[in-house]
Design a protein that fits this description.
- The structure holds 2 protein chains of 2 kinds.
- Chain A has 14 helices and 12 strands.
- By secondary structure, chain A is of the alpha/beta class.
- Chain A has 2 domains: 52 residues; 288 residues, no CATH class.
- The N and C termini of chain A lie far apart (76 Å).
- Chain B has 19 helices and no strands.
- Chain B is mainly α.
- The chains are: A alpha/beta, B mainly alpha.
- Chains A and B meet through helix 1, helix 3 and helix 4 of A and helix 1, helix 9, helix 17, helix 18 and helix 19 of B.
Chain lengths: 389, 481
């Protein structure tokens, strides 16, 4: 027998296995209805070809297999190319390049000057990320992150410009909290309990800097019920690396034990606190593991609080506000919300249309410098007037 | 160089899940005389997945070359006519390649920035054009030299040679005579061997090349030497050398595998080049079909080594290496890369190395020297420009600031990627063929191998698919040339 004949049997087995794989995958596509038309495949881009393996079933299997492989060989750095870094205690973190924060400072100063003319208060709230010391990032990943240093620089510049600031990192340190525990492991957002805690701090800052008289006892924990659903969801970052790799997060929701009443402005309807919370999403998470998007179970609609008669605030925020806006609104008469990167109106236009007692700009640290990064969706967050080039 | 991404390559899911099985079924159910026609039709459909405009271009070029080839054959003893037709064909093919290679210059001159405009799309580099032109020139030259005969009755074979989808995008640059069908008795064994080859190539590309590209893209993305350290750049350089090898040899394996599945055999394109003993030998092992093409259609026609003086031989070598550099691109780093290899080969010829190296130590030293030089030249090849390449090389030898963070990154990357780096280094030498040969010596071992090997290969293939779905796929590096 020559070499080719000796190998032939093995090659035949391989060919049969390959055929089985082809038939099986095509069968899955047909059964799940994932059959792109020949025409769409001919006319669309490379992605159409990949669609042959992107029905939900195969997608999940492949993602989890890839995650299992990377976990098995401890290949944590494999996801660095999509900005995902895994700490030793399995938190997903990211990094930011250096920013001189000049643009952000100028925009804030310009906004302050405008609000001073309108006799409206302004507070900048710095929301933390999962590490408060950039050196930690260097130590764990060998690359520089400037998230905290950019925030330090901006807060210093704002302070020098006479703009009141609230640094949640310092507040966490004061209260003896480990910043990391305020966050989900698999999502860049912070938890609902963290948002609840932050709402009390922001309310306190409104009292201190904007002359508000929010009843801070509203934010005593005894007035709320905390319920935890263990290991029920995977965050936005986690789904990119699969639950098989990173695991699941717990979800804790918080509801007040006292009566509440709001006018939900957009729908022009009254309701209580429960209207901020998508309870059906939370109920589903109790039985359906791998449920996505839990952070957005709390929403941030514009409201009037029927039970509070003073204080009108414009909250200029990012998606971190989903975790705290509802709690903040408990102590304020009117709370409006604008997210500059996705709003049809600019902050300036919003302010022109309404009078507020205070404006709270509340951003996570990775908004700082975003406008310098091409393609970064957060580039518009510090663009308040719409005419900035 | 402007390029348009192709919707289907021989690695695409739609290719191995649909196109290949359907084409194979059609092909093998046909009689031999109809097989070329089916293959032509399927190749045109394959090209249509990319661009209808470019498909027409390739078809026209095919027909023109075919007509010229037929004209040369029918010229008989009319030497002037034969020569005239041949030179016209070669000049036309070369002009088309040069035009599209350097249309970036025309695009900027004509201020063509609208990527949706017809003018812009017409100037896009047709993927596979280089290898198509190489084949066309080989076709005409072999006809001119009398090695190949074509007639109007057997046009399909010529079209198959030039258009065959299995080799279209990045070679190997086979010869017309390579594309003959093997006798019917051996086709089943060749088909199954082709499947093995295809799957191995697929795994090489996805599990090794694409994973290692994580390291190389991080290192070579650094714009400032202050962010680098010697260890960091050496790691990037070695990983780049490995990535390029597995990317290109993986593609070649897939292309050879597909060719085998259709009952044809082509010569090997990669023969463990990093196990080379000399720079000259390296180019008989790395992209062997390109080296053979330049040897047969540039070097030898210029006189090769049969010149009156040694200087003549060196001049011919320089011409080949300058052309090779220019073929990759008009950028200075490609030219310097080509010249670097020329100098290595020149050195060996001038000093009679490695023939004159008798001691094992000297031969080992020369192997290490050549391998190091090859890696350094790959650094220049990879960098955005020559200046960046030279900066990187300077850092590799300890010049300039050595960033401590990047040293730390080296440790982390080695921890992260050891499971892929170790096999990548190991398989640069023929470990699997040696193991296979040992197993063939015993019936029991051979039987075990025949069961374990396919199971391992299919498992690796499934892992490759999972990484592709995740999104960890890069386009073939050499498709851009």
């Amino acid at each position: 027998m020559n070499s080719l004949q000796k190998r032939n049997f093995g090659n035949v087995i391989l060919t049969v296995l390959f055929l089985i794989v082809i038939v099986a995958l095509n069968a899955v596509n047909i059964i799940t209805g994932n059959v792109p038309s020949v025409i769409s495949v001919l006319t669309e881009t490379e992605e159409a070809s990949g669609d042959l393996l992107r029905c939900d079933l195969l997608n999940n299997i492949c993602l989890n297999l890839a995650g299992t492989l990377t976990k098995f060989v401890n290949m944590d750095g494999y996801y660095n190319n999509i900005g995902i870094y895994i700490t030793k205690d399995r938190y997903i973190v990211g990094y930011s390049p250096y920013s001189d924060t000049e643009y952000e400072t100028e925009q804030m100063k310009r906004l302050k000057a405008y609000l001073d003319e309108k006799d409206t208060g302004l507070i900048y709230v710095n929301l933390p990320v999962k590490y408060t010391d950039d050196a930690v990032f260097v130590k764990e990943f060998g690359r520089e992150s400037y998230r905290n240093r950019n925030a330090d620089l901006l807060l210093q510049n704002l302070s020098d410009a006479g703009i009141p600031t609230l640094d949640m990192r310092a507040e966490a340190a004061k209260d003896g909290l480990n910043v990391k525990e305020l966050f989900y492991r698999t999502d860049h957002h912070w938890t609902v309990p963290a948002g609840f805690w932050a709402a009390g701090k922001i309310a306190g800052a409104l009292n201190q800097y904007a002359g508000f008289s929010v009843d801070l006892s509203l934010y005593d924990k005894e007035n709320y019920t905390f319920t935890t659903i263990p290991e029920c969801w995977v965050g936005e970052q986690g789904v990119k690396v699969s639950p098989a790799y990173i695991g699941y997060d717990d979800y804790t929701y918080v509801v007040p034990n006292f009566p509440t009443s709001f006018l939900f402005k957009r729908q022009n309807q009254h309701g209580d606190f429960s209207r901020f919370v998508a309870m059906e999403t939370i109920e589903a998470a109790k039985t359906e593991k791998d449920f996505l998007g839990m952070h957005y179970a709390y929403s941030k609609p514009e409201v009037s609080n029927d039970l509070v008669d003073s204080g009108k605030v414009l909250l200029v925020c990012d998606s971190y506000a989903n975790a705290y806006m509802a709690f903040l609104a408990l102590g304020i008469s009117e709370t409006d919300v604008i997210v500059p990167r996705s709003s049809e109106l600019t902050v300036y236009e919003k302010l022109e249309q309404n009078d507020y007692d205070a404006v709270v700009i509340s951003y996570a640290e990775f908004m700082i410098g975003a406008h310098e990064q091409p393609g970064n969706v957060n580039g518009k967050m510090f663009t308040f007037f719409g005419d900035e080039s | 160089m402007n390029t348009m991404g192709c919707i289907m390559t021989i690695q695409s899911n739609i290719f191995w899940m649909l196109f290949l099985p359907v084409t194979l079924l059609l092909y093998h159910s046909m009689k031999d005389k109809n097989k070329p026609l089916i293959l032509c039709a399927c190749s045109l459909i394959f090209l249509l997945f990319g661009s209808a405009l470019h498909t027409v271009l390739f078809l026209v070029l095919c027909l023109v070359n075919l007509l010229i080839g037929i004209g040369i054959c029918q010229s008989g003893g009319q030497t002037a006519k034969r020569k005239g037709l041949y030179i016209s064909g070669v000049v036309l093919d070369t002009a088309v390649l040069v035009f599209y290679k350097y249309t970036g210059i025309f695009s900027s001159y004509l201020h063509l920035t609208d990527t949706e405009s017809a003018a812009y799309k017409m100037l896009l580099f047709p993927l596979g054009l280089s290898f198509f032109i190489f084949k066309a020139i080989s076709f005409l030259t072999d006809i001119y030299r009398g090695k190949v005969t074509v007639s109007q009755d057997a046009c399909e074979n010529s079209l198959v040679y030039m258009l065959f989808f299995g080799q279209f995008h990045s070679g190997p640059i086979s010869r017309y005579s390579d594309m003959a069908l093997v006798p019917a008795g051996g086709r089943t064994a060749l088909l199954t061997q082709g499947v093995y080859r295809y799957l191995v190539g697929f795994c090489k590309k996805t599990l090794l090349a694409d994973v290692l590209s994580r390291i190389t893209s991080e290192v070579f993305m650094k714009s400032s030497p202050d962010e680098l350290s010697a260890a960091y750049v050496w790691l990037g350089a070695i990983c780049w050398a490995l990535e390029l090898y597995y990317d290109f040899s993986g593609y070649s394996d897939m292309a050879i595998g597909v060719t085998n599945m259709f009952g044809m055999q082509v010569p090997e394109n990669f023969l463990y080049p990093y196990a080379t003993a000399s720079a000259s030998d390296f180019w008989r092992r790395w992209h062997a079909s390109l080296g053979a093409w330049f040897r047969d259609y540039v070097y030898i026609p210029l006189g090769g080594s049969r010149t009156k003086t040694r200087l003549g031989t060196y001049r011919n070598l320089l011409a080949v290496w300058l052309l090779t550099g220019f073929w990759h691109g008009i950028s200075l780093n490609f030219i310097v890369w080509g010249l670097g290899h020329f100098l290595l080969i020149l050195l060996e010829k001038a000093l009679g190395i490695p023939k004159r190296l008798h001691s094992a130590a000297a031969r080992i030293f020369w192997r290490i020297f050549v391998l190091t030089a090859v890696v350094l030249l790959w650094v220049i090849f990879r960098c955005n420009d020559l200046m960046q390449g030279l900066q990187f090389i300077a850092v590799m030898f300890g010049f300039g600031a050595q960033n401590p963070n990047s040293v730390h990154r080296v440790v982390l990357m080695l921890q992260d990627y050891y499971a892929f780096l170790i096999p990548a280094l190991l398989f640069t030498v023929p470990v699997i063929p040696m193991l296979q040969k040992k197993c063939e010596a015993s019936q029991k071992l051979n039987a075990a191998w025949n069961v374990l090997c396919p199971v391992c290969v299919i498992a690796m293939f499934l892992l490759s698919i999972t990484l592709l779905v995740y999104g960890g796929n890069n386009p073939f590096v050499y498709a851009a040339f």
